[in-house]
Amino acid sequence: MGFVANGNHTPSEIVIESDSFYPSIALDHIRQIVRIDGAVTNDRLKQAIIEEIIDINRLLKSLKDKATQLSDLATTQINEQPDTDYLYLSAVANGVAAKINENYRNYDSSNAGGKKAEDAELTVDDYRRNKQWAILQLLGENHTVVELI
Question: A Pfam family this protein belongs to (predicted)?
Answer without folding.
Answer: Phage_GPL
